[in-house]
């Protein structure tokens, strides 16, 4: 009976350790071309580095209205930043 209890405790500890770290969600491929209409709907982005758990560098775009993020080439970061500045309304605009 004690062996079964010890086994269950060990299994629960292993489950707790792996659930906190989790499996990283990495981009496997990246798109080099993304239409401007889609880039305008980007709500936020994350940068995936190839030095960590993931194999390739990527730009993870979270697009409004899409359930899954889009994996883009990291060189598109400047374009995404430029579009996000251009789209945001200027609050201090005078008329």
Characteristic key phrases:
single chain; alpha+beta; 3 helices; elongated; disordered C terminus
Share of helix, binned: 25-40%
The coarse overall form would be elongated
- How many strands in all? 3
Largest sheet: 3 strands, antiparallel
What number is the mean pLDDT? 80
What value does the Rg take, in angstroms?
A: 21 Å
Helix segment count? 3
Strand order of the largest sheet: 1-2-3
* Low-pLDDT runs: 90-95
- Helix and strand run: HHEEEH
Strand content: 15-25%
Decide which structural class fits the backbone: alpha+beta
Characterize the structure shown.
With 95 residues, the protein is of the alpha+beta class. The chain is 37% helix and 17% strand. The chain has a three-stranded antiparallel beta sheet with strand order 1-2-3, with helices on one face.
List the topology elements.
Layout: H1 2-21, H2 36-39, E1 42-48, E2 58-63, E3 70-72, H3 77-87
Antiparallel strand pairs: 1-2, 2-3
Short description:
The chain has helices at residues 2-21, 36-39, 77-87, and strands spanning 42-48, 58-63, 70-72.
